[in-house]
Write a structure and sequence with these properties.
With 319 residues, this protein is of the alpha+beta class. It has a domain of 210 residues: paralog of FGE (formylglycine-generating enzyme) (Alpha-Beta Complex). The chain contains six helices and 16 strands. The chain has a four-stranded mixed β-sheet. The chain has a three-stranded antiparallel β-sheet with strand order 3-6-16, with no helix packed on it. β10 and β11 form a beta hairpin. The longest helix has 11 residues. The chain is globular, with a radius of gyration of 18 Å. 47% of the residues are buried.
Length: 319
């Protein structure tokens, strides 16, 4: 198993390979209420930040152009996803496989001891537990539920789950270039979605890990797990939590170098691959281990992977 930042990833069995590998298609027929219209245009994508991860392909800085598009102001919430499930009867990948991954600190100590005896931790990422019965509606295992979390981003959502939701909603996943354009909020080459300093005027601007990762999270930003999807101040485009909270799926296949020679106008990544892009970081990112809440940071996961810090948001093209 190959770990990806703070998120485990593995190729599980089964699934619709044709669905997960569908080519990019523009969608302009879905409802855009209450989405935010982004102007598109040319921007400087990527970074050569000294605290970045060059092997991830964060650089070089290059001018990229995207067309105007609409984006959800927030990640898809538990309430949103619940309506999708009720309408379609869709079964998520986590439900099909019978398990998903949960961060150790969100599990009761007794459950951790049991899973330790069963060898259900992830090699090299032992803070993650393979929990039977964990899924979007039971984020911490079969005895848990999402009561009180309706306005939090849905988690344990695989790439295929995100595609299925988008198809139901008449929307699509954003490309990586669209995500970075949106996250920058009109700022040029800033480290974060709000500027170059992690905190502004002593105030937290995103939900990430404080304390000593992975043992102790002080929750100084107000949250140990997910935060409401509209927590913290929005960026310059009015988008919430473009950094931290949950990783979000992008359309593109992962490559650390395709962009070196790939197109600069409306890029959609390589035509094939094994892993899909994740952007934005999550509540488990910490500067001692994974500072990928920076606006140009990137990572990836297999299309059928699901974890307690992995969600998505949608876009619609401008007609």
């Amino acid at each position: 198993m190959k770990g990806s930042c703070c998120t485990p990833g593995e190729k599980r069995c089964g699934g619709d390979e044709a669905f997960e590998g569908k080519p990019f298609e523009r969608i302009d027929s879905g409802s855009t209420d209450p989405m935010i219209r982004l102007p598109g245009g040319a921007f400087l994508m990527g970074t050569t930040d000294a605290i970045g991860y060059p092997d991830d392909g964060e650089g070089p800085i290059r001018e990229v152009t995207v067309d105007p598009f609409y984006m959800d102001p927030c990640a898809v919430t538990v309430a949103d996803f619940s309506r999708f499930i009720a309408s379609t009867g869709y079964e998520t990948d986590a439900g099909t496989f019978g398990f998903s991954y949960v961060f150790h600190a969100l599990l009761p100590a007794s459950t951790q001891r049991t899973l330790d005896m069963l060898g259900r931790t992830v090699r090299g990422l032992e803070w993650w537990y393979n929990v039977e019965g964990a899924d979007w509606a039971h984020p911490f295992g079969p005895e848990s539920d999402v009561q009180g979390l309706e306005n939090h981003p849905v988690t344990h959502a695989s790439y295929r789950d995100a595609l299925a939701y988008c198809a139901w909603a008449g929307k699509r996943l954003p490309t990586e270039a669209e995500v970075e354009f949106a996250a920058r909020g009109g700022l040029e080459q800033k480290r974060y979605a709000w500027g170059d300093e992690l905190m502004l005027d002593g105030q937290h601007r995103c939900n990430i890990f404080q304390g000593k990762f992975p043992d102790y999270n002080s929750g100084e930003d107000g949250f140990i797990g997910t935060a409401p999807a509209d927590a913290f101040e929005p960026n310059g485009y009015g988008l919430y939590n473009m950094a931290g909270n949950v990783w979000e799926w992008a359309f593109d296949w992962w490559s650390p170098d395709f962009h070196l020679t790939g197109p600069r106008e409306n890029p959609v990544g390589p035509p094939t691959g094994e892993r899909r892009l994740n952007r934005g970081g999550s509540y488990l990112c910490h500067d001692s281990y994974c500072n990928r809440y920076r606006v140009a940071a990137r990572t990836s996961n297999t299309p059928d992977s699901s974890t307690g810090n992995l969600g998505f948001r949608c876009v619609v093209d401008v007609k």
